[in-house]
Please model this.
Amino acid sequence: MKAKNITSIVFGQVLKEQRLERGLTQDKLAELAKVDRSHISSLERATRSPLIPTLFTLANALGMTASQLIEAVEKRLKSMK
Model:
C-alpha cells in the first residue's frame, strides 16, 4: 500500500518518536510487534500506511493503546493547521 499523504507522514513521525522514547530500535519494535523490520522502516518513512490490526500490534508493542497512538497522530495533525 503506497502512502505519502500527510496522515501517513505524521503517523511515521509519531511512531518513530514513540519508539525512540522507549529506547527501541526498529529491529526490537519489529520483534515485539511480530512484523518485519522493513515494515517498521516503511511506516516511519511513510511509504506504507498501517492496517488496523498492525496499528493495534504496534501500539501494544509500544506499551500503549491504539487509541493513544491515534490520538498522538491527531494532535500532531491539528497542530499543523
